[in-house]
Amino acid sequence: MAKKKKRPGLYLSPVMAAVLAVALVGVSFGAGWFFGVRSTQFHGNILLVNDSHRLSADYVPDELVNLYTQRHSFRMASSEIYLTRQTYEAMEKMFHAAEEANMNGYIVTSGYRSYQRQQEVYAESEPGKAQQPGASEHQTGLAFDVTVETNDGFESTPQYGWLMAHAHEYGFIQRYPANKADVTGISYEPWHYRYVGVDAATRMHNSGQTLEEFLGQ
Ligand SMILES: [Zn+2]
After folding, report:
1. Which of 1, 132, 168, 175: CA 20 to 30 A from 12?
2. Ligand 1: distance of its center to the CA of 12 in Å?
3. Residue 10: per-residue pLDDT
4. Catalytic annotation, residues
């Protein structure tokens, strides 16, 4: 067997290697600075926000719309609930389909929350009950909370059952499922839904993975 000849062109002197390393660090630092939140928080176009992946205080999503001013096939707990346009359009489609299936009475209680608002929520909450500022998915404008009028928990209603079966068809995942707190860092929240797009939502629905597991984080 012929021995492979070492190609002299690939040899790096220690000095050249050091220069190259410094240049690479410079380039990646520059890219990180240039792309800002995109390079640190987006994983294949999916924004991950949790305790160890936080948003900066000035992160505000593009194209927030006030749901109250749009056609909405759901009730609202307030006239001041905002989501990104894409998220709104997907949720409207979903709740319209629910209505067609005689699933009514959904009440959307919360959407986009600014970093500053989350600071207030955090300050007002008992320890461990609210996410720290920057660590709340509500700052993405891609997540909303929903419930129905019920004396039992939302999770015991047929409306919840319908969402569990169909939310992924519209690009939504239940972000904090039961028994996954060790992965998500958040205990069961049957009311919290997150937009990730139909493809990712369907894959997570079929595999039973949380967003952290799906993104390998
Ligand atoms: Zn929520």
Report:
1. 1
2. 53
3. 52
4. 189
Q: Residues of CATH 3.30.1380.10 domain(s) within the chain? A: 55-214
The pLDDT, as a whole number, for residue 29 is 45
25, pLDDT greater than 60: no
Buried b (16+ CB within 10 A) or exposed e, 68-77: eeeebbbbbe
- pLDDT tens figures, 108-134: 999 999 999 999 999 999 988 889 999
CATH number, domain 55-214, options 2.60.40.10, 3.30.1380.10, 2.170.270.10, 3.40.50.1000: 3.30.1380.10
Query: For 166-178, what is each residue's pLDDT tens digit?
Result: 999 999 999 999 9
Task: Please return the burial class of 208, using the count of CB atoms within 10 Å of its CB with bins 0-12, 13-18 and 19+.
Answer: exposed
Cα 44 to ligand 1 centroid, rounded to whole Å:
23
Environment of ion ligand 1 (residues, CB < 5 A): 145, 192
pTM of the model: 0.81
* Distance (Å) from CA 78 to ligand 1 centroid: 15
